[in-house]
Predict the 3D structure of the following.
Amino acid sequence: MADAVSVLVVEDEDDIRNLVALNLRRSGFNVLTAGDGETALALAREHVPPVVLLDLMLPDMSGTEICQALRADRKTQGVYVIMVTARTEESDRITGFEVGADDYVPKPFSVRELVLRVQAASRRMARNEPESEVTGNLELGELTLNVSAHRVWVSGEELELTSTEYKLLLHLAESAGRLCSRGELLKEVWELPPSLNTRTVDTHVKRLRQKLRAASSYIETVRGAGYRFRSFSP
Ligand code: CA
């Protein structure tokens, strides 16, 4: 049997940590746990788990600081970070995405939904390559995507995107001129059921627009429906 996929659960509340770890183990994951940030970073650097479940509020440092440290370290920069936050921490949640979390789960969460998100994340990490019909360069206005190299430029300047931001941009750009609903994006980019909470999508679009600078207006909001990448005549 292949080695189980590792997940690092970072949570200072013992009851929650044990419950989540138990359910992930039952689903076949190899679970590492940490109750504080220092332990979390040490375990992440030693084991490089593909998925990290990160509580925002910890005794010694915040989830955003841990996320930043993971992204700053070559070894751990590509791990999939699911940030777990309380609903009242709206501003911190946004900060979490700005330092590069890949998904967001509000507390109180359903353990079943959390396990589902970890399963989707680990599937994505195992495959690693976004599916694309395009090879070579995709040119849309000021934006250039090199699909095989996963690199993106705006007006000739290269952007630094997380893997999730890249997948989101690729899906939107490949669907240029067509409406993409939030549910579709959740399904295609995060591989989650379209019925789940879609704020993850909105926060990522916001962040992506900031990074796109001169090309930010290419992603249009279709009120009440989703997003559409501007169409460019060939
Ligand atoms: Ca906490």
Q: What stands out?
A: The chain has two domains: 6-127, 137-229.
